[in-house]
Design goal:
The complex is a heterotrimer of chains A (about 375), B (about 300) and C (about 260). Chain A has two domains: about 180 residues, D-Maltodextrin-Binding Protein, domain 2, CATH 3.40.190; about 150 residues, Periplasmic binding protein-like II (D-Maltodextrin-Binding Protein, domain 2). Helices cover about 40% and strands about 15% of the residues of chain A. Chain A contains 14 helices and ten strands. By secondary structure, chain B is mainly alpha-helical. In chain B, about 70% of the residues lie in helices and about 0% in strands. Chain B starts with about 25 loop residues before the first helix and ends in a 5-residue tail after the last helix. Chain C is an all-alpha fold and about 260 residues long. Classes of the chains: A alpha+beta (about 375), B mainly alpha (about 300), C mainly alpha (about 260). Chains in contact: A-B, A-C, B-C. The interface between B and C is large, with 110 and 109 residues.
Chain lengths: ~375, ~300, ~260
């Protein structure tokens, strides 16, 4: 009957699929005349990372350079993951040594204590440990700051000719229907920190973020707020020509769009809030040596400069600046240092309290009253 | 040659009318053997992974047993989230069902050329899963403030946003959901429409029925169980939708899937157990929907049992 | 007669517009990679990326595997239930709806937990993860495939067909593969289309099990960083999925789209 050729084709395709799936990547090993950590990592052959978008602090290039330098395979899980996802991924993979278990994570500053409390990470001090500022790392080496950025405005200057310079400017009627957040404040750290920044600019304090919620309520009431989750595409389209983003993401967008359209990155005059992220090695990492090698790479001057290239302030920035280790062209590509003079760094407790309040109160303060 | 049964026999599901088996009853074991692979698969791939869901609903973050999560569910903001999600699912299930049905009818019984049907079913297959970020952006590009249609209408003198329309609202989200709802309806209801025999229409016309009577007394009653089944599918499809809603109206419209997402995967210190409890609540809502569906379907099948 | 044709065309045109306009808008945007002029630059950049083809092929294969397993699992089950165990139908229908309300993220982490340890040890290799992925996809596609098959079964007289076949001496295998499957052709095709589209676009399961090797996570990666490429990617994935489904339809050409027991 006529169905048989179809079923035959299906069976052939199934077999081909299984063949392809069974072909695991080969690992490369070299001679033993090198750093024992490098040798051990190469013996493991692979590293599994999670939540690393390629344009976030130039992770794309960092991964490629790492792969080329050491010949390891890098499994990239879920580039869209939030910090919560990364933690859940470690927990779910406790008993697995497979390629879907993350070796290393890059999460928000506020998650440090939880990582230790729940036994999710193993301690490791990179060789450049001492040049990491003390208040951005755990003394025992369980987690350590990797980079920071400040909350900035990303503006499509082809559409918005009078570029806003501060939070209060956003409330002006000329920006009707143009301002958006880059995430859902119940879910996304970037959006929550935007609210935090608005709070600082509107009379709030690091301990009380209510003013930020009020700001967005007002933004919505005057009709300037667009409740869409903004991305590079919506800014370019002109649907959300003004958004609040980490400065490094805004700079990455500016580079990617390359003038089509023109993007201006504005550090607000007041309410300059910093967001620190931290690195850690999973306590259940299937490839601990590869993980350690990755950390050594990231915290070397080379790795830190790759992050700088992506617009992030690497955590060892001050140390490297003192030693003149930063090339002039990279330093110039960032917004001027004076703009960062008023940067505020909230503590872990302040961050977590603020985020909890925002996530809880957002819907009732700002959300649509849908009957 | 083909085994066409005699016209006049109703082939649709009619479990009560089943004749007793001609052969002696086989043992109970062999009866259940036929469904063993399915239940085994479900146990391994659905029940086992979901156990953490159900157990987690009744635990707190330290693992102790508690009812607090379920009690929290009736807090106004969460109860409201359920209600909004149910509303949007109902709206898009009914509207999508109707539009899908009319289109499926048009290509099966509406006398259109075969190539239209072919294109429609292919298109439906692709569109029924065009969701999430690409769909949200596609609608932004069409009906957003700077969207193509908005701009065209503005040129024609009609200002959508001034007259109160907004894509970023309940109705805007419903409109976006419809994009994957009605293709789904088209795909699934088409075989049922194929099963409507020409002979029945002819018989009805011979007895003096007009088109309207044919539809209300013959065709729709036969199709109703399938239509209901499809609408429940559409309801569930919409109820569980997450990515599209998050992209389009994230932070603004209170949908339960987004709330669950914020508990389980958000960047704030999350309460995973509450998230599990909310998902458990979704299972309960879905169960209730299925109960209503069965009630409606048995009523619609009743006429077949006379 | 004329009137009903007009009516049909009206609905098709309405539905067609609804389908096409968002696609046209996306396409128009994807042509804007070069400032102030229309060009295919975004598409060129995309096709130059080897990862695009790799991830697409990977997901196509996953889709085909999922379809085969789903059909082989569900058609005999649905048929058997209609024939012998009508009371169980309620239970199975409920089960088929469960994937809607179990969030994909719960499913994937649950699966990883369950299959990491003994006795399965499935997560230790790429192959094992792929097996898990296909299993997860079958679960995700379950509501659609079951509903499609069930609707198809409701339009044919299962009992009479079976009894006729049995009286001619056919065994269960023959009945299933030579009678039931051909009669469910349209329903199986619908289910296959839906499954294929689901697998191509699926993100959560793939992103935690195989990462950016699959098409869904790849689309998300591009979507975050590259504006015009992400629009062109949406159009391309739409077009390629369409092409794959069209091929599936072609493979069944020769047989008419009617079922053997009626239709027009």
């Amino acid at each position: 009957m006529r169905q048989k050729p179809v079923y035959k084709l299906m069976i052939v395709l199934v077999l081909v699929a299984m063949l392809m799936a069974a072909c695991a990547p080969k690992t490369t090993t070299t001679g033993g005349d090198e750093d024992p950590l490098v040798a051990a990592a190469k013996a493991e052959g692979q590293l599994t990372v999670i939540a690393l978008p390629h344009d976030w602090c130039n992770y794309g290039e960092a991964i490629e350079v790492f792969k080329a330098k050491y010949g390891l395979t890098v499994n990239e899980l879920n580039p869209d993951a939030g910090s919560g996802d990364e933690i859940e991924a470690i927990k779910a993979n406790k008993e697995s040594k497979g390629p879907q278990a993350p070796d290393v994570i890059d999460v928000g500053y506020g998650f440090g204590p939880q990582l230790i409390e729940e036994g999710l990470v193993m301690p490791y001090k990179v060789s450049t440990w001492d040049s990491i500022p003390a208040d951005t790392k755990n003394a025992d080496g369980y987690w350590y700051g990797d980079y920071y950025g400040v909350m900035a405005f990303e503006v499509n200057s082809d559409i918005v000719t009078n570029v806003p310079q501060d939070w209060a400017d956003l409330l002006k009627p000329e920006y009707k229907g143009q301002v958006a957040l880059a995430g859902d404040p119940r879910v996304s750290a970037q959006a929550q920190m935007s609210v935090y920044g608005a709070a600082l600019a509107s009379g709030g304090t690091l301990d009380d973020v209510t003013a930020g919620l009020e700001f967005f309520k007002q933004l919505n009431d005057v009709g300037n707020f667009v409740p869409l989750v903004a991305k590079q595409a919506t800014v370019a389209k002109g649907e959300t020509p003004i958004i609040m983003r980490w400065d490094y993401n805004a700079l990455a967008d500016k580079a990617a769009l390359a003038g089509n359209p023109n993007i201006e990155v504005v550090i607000p005059k007041t309410g300059v809030i910093a967001g620190v992220y931290i690195q850690a090695i999973s306590a259940y990492a299937p490839h601990p040596n590869a993980a350690k090698l990755w950390m050594e790479f990231l915290y070397s001057d080379e790795g830190q400069l790759l992050w700088l290239k992506g617009g992030c302030h690497p955590i060892r920035y001050n140390d490297m600046a003192d030693r003149n280790a930063i090339p002039a062209d990279l330093a110039d590509a960032l917004p001027a240092a004076e703009l960062y003079a008023n940067t505020v760094f909230p503590s872990i407790d302040q961050i977590n309290a603020a985020k909890a309040l925002i996530a809880e109160k957002w819907m009732e303060t700002v959300g649509a009253d849908v009957k | 040659m083909s085994n066409k049964p005699l016209p006049g026999l109703t082939p649709t599901e009619n479990t009560k009318r089943d004749a007793p088996q001609a052969r002696p009853a086989k043992s109970v074991v062999s009866k259940w053997l036929g469904v063993l692979p399915f239940f085994l698969f479900i146990f391994i791939f659905v029940v086992l992974p979901s156990i953490s869901l159900f157990i987690g609903s009744f635990q707190d973050s330290k693992g102790n047993f508690t009812f607090k999560n379920l009690v929290d569910l009736v807090k106004p903001e969460y109860a409201n989230a359920y209600w909004v999600t149910i509303r949007i699912s109902l709206v898009t299930a009914v509207a999508g069902g109707i539009l899908g049905f009319m289109m499926a009818y048009a290509v099966t019984l509406g006398g259109l050329p075969r190539w239209v049907r072919s294109i429609l079913s292919t298109f439906s297959g692709v569109a029924s899963n065009f969701a999430g970020v690409p769909l949200a952006f596609a609608f932004v590009a069409t009906l957003g403030r700077t969207g193509m249609v908005t701009v065209i209408l503005k040129a024609l003198g009609v200002n959508l946003y001034d007259s109160g329309f907004s894509l970023y609202s309940f109705w805007g989200l419903s409109l976006t959901y419809m994009y994957f709802q009605f293709p789904l309806m088209v795909l699934i209801i088409t075989p049922a429409l194929d099963g409507l025999r020409k002979e029945w229409r002819e018989a009805a016309e011979n007895l003096g029925a007009n088109s309207f009577q044919y539809w209300t007394k013959v065709a729709l009653p036969i199709l109703m169980p399938s239509i209901l089944g499809c609408m429940v599918l559409l309801f569930g499809n919409s109820f569980g939708a997450y990515a599209t809603a998050l992209s389009l109206t994230g932070g603004f419209i209170n949908l339960i899937t987004v709330v669950i997402g914020s508990q389980i995967k958000g960047d704030v210190l999350h309460n995973v157990n509450l998230g599990y409890a909310m998902a458990f609540g979704m299972v309960l809502v879905m169960s209730l929907t299925m109960v209503i569906y069965y009630f409606l379907r048995r009523r619609s099948e009743r006429w077949l049992r006379q | 007669m004329k009137w009903s044709k007009l009516w049909s065309w009206l609905w098709i045109v309405l539905g067609g517009l609804y389908f096409i306009l968002p696609l046209v808008a996306t396409f128009e945007f994807s042509l804007r990679a070069k400032k102030d002029q229309l060009s295919f630059l975004a598409y060129q950049r995309l096709f130059a990326d080897p990862q695009f083809f790799q991830t697409f092929l990977f997901s196509v294969l996953m889709g085909l595997l999922t379809i085969v397993i789903s059909i082989l699992l569900i058609v005999p089950t649905a048929y058997w239930i209609r024939l012998k165990l009508p009371k169980v139908r309620v239970v199975v229908e409920f089960i088929s709806m469960l994937p809607f309300v179990i969030p994909a993220i719960v499913l994937v982490f649950g699966m990883i937990r369950v299959f990491s340890g003994p006795p399965f040890y499935l997560t230790d290799t790429y192959t094992g993860n792929t097996v898990l992925l296909v299993g997860g996809y079958v679960v995700l596609a379950l509501p659609y495939t079951y509903r499609a098959i069930d609707t198809g079964l409701s339009a044919i007289d299962v009992r009479s067909l079976t009894e006729a076949a049995q009286s001619l001496g056919a065994g269960w295998g023959t009945i299933l593969f030579k009678i039931i499957f051909p009669n469910l052709r349209v329903a199986i095709l619908s289910g296959s289309f839906l499954t294929f589209a689901i697998v191509m676009g699926e993100f959560t399961l793939a992103s935690f099990l195989v990462g950016i090797k699959a098409f869904g996570p790849y689309m998300s990666l591009i979507g975050q960083n590259k504006t015009y490429e992400s629009s062109s990617l949406a159009i391309i994935s739409f077009a390629l999925t369409w092409a794959a489904i069209w091929v599936m339809q072609l493979l069944n050409r020769g047989q008419s789209e009617r079922q053997l027991t009626g239709g027009r």
